[in-house]
Amino acid sequence: MSETIFTTGTDSPNAAPMGIIRKNYRNQIRLFEGSQTYENVVNERWLVVNVVIDPVVFVRTAFGNLDYTEFDTFSIDNKQYPFLKDALIYILFECSDLKFTKDTLVADILPVHACINRNVIKAPNRGFNAVLDASIHATRYLVLGGEQYLNLIYELEKIVKKCGGTREKQAMRLLYNLLNIDD
Fold first, then answer.
1. 90, 84 contact by CB (below 8 A)
2. Which of 37, 145, 170, 178 shows the smallest number of beta carbons within 10 Å?
3. Is the pLDDT at 123 greater than 80, yes or no?
4. pLDDT digits over 134-170, tens only?
5. How far is 149 from 142, CA to CA, in rounded Å?
């Protein structure tokens, strides 16, 4: 699974961290009912995948939306699509073959347009990956509860302290503040 940030919403842009699932030579998404991204994909049948290497953005989008000033748009066939200004790359995908279950939507995604937004090459460090995992565990902790998720976050923080840079450490502090726990 590739961790990215999806942007959706023609009228009011929304950003959320999501993974692209590669299965049987198909790119797919799985969205959970109740999210703004779910509603936007059902209504609009498209999404923009943003490749971002800023861990703070992942944490912020996992627990809320970004300010409208952090988005920009591009136009195809007189329709505006939002993307993150700080994305390295953004790709517009059409969503097709939507399948609904009790709580989720699974759809195939087909690339329509891609753009290299910032010509920056930077390999993520282990701290960045730990922040991503900690964010996923934090969302599960908020939805499901359970000390096991907090314990995983605490373990991942050790990696961030050892291997992360300034932004990774800032992202972990933000995550702890959002969860209202001590670091």
1. yes
2. 145
3. no
4. 999 998 888 888 899 999 999 999 999 998 889 999 9
5. 9
Strand partners, 95: 109
The predicted structure's pLDDT at residue 59? 92
Read off the amino acid at residue 39. Answer: E
Considering the four listed CATH numbers 3.40.50.1980, 3.40.50.460, 2.30.110.10, 3.40.50.720, the one that applies to the domain covering 2-116 is 2.30.110.10
Domain ranges of the chain: 2-116, 126-179
Q: What is the DSSP string of the chain?
A: -EEEEEEE-SSS-EEEEEEEEEETTEEEEEEETTSHHHHHHHHH-EEEEEE---HHHHHHHHHS---GGGEEEEEETTEEEEEETT-SEEEEEEEEEEEE-SSEEEEEEEEEEEEE------PPPHHHHHHHHHHHHHHHHHHH--HHHHHHHHHHHHHHHHH--HHHHHHHHHHHHHHT---
What's the CATH fold of domain 126-179?
Answer: Methane Monooxygenase Hydroxylase; Chain G, domain 1 (1.20.58)
Residue with tokens 């900690």: 134
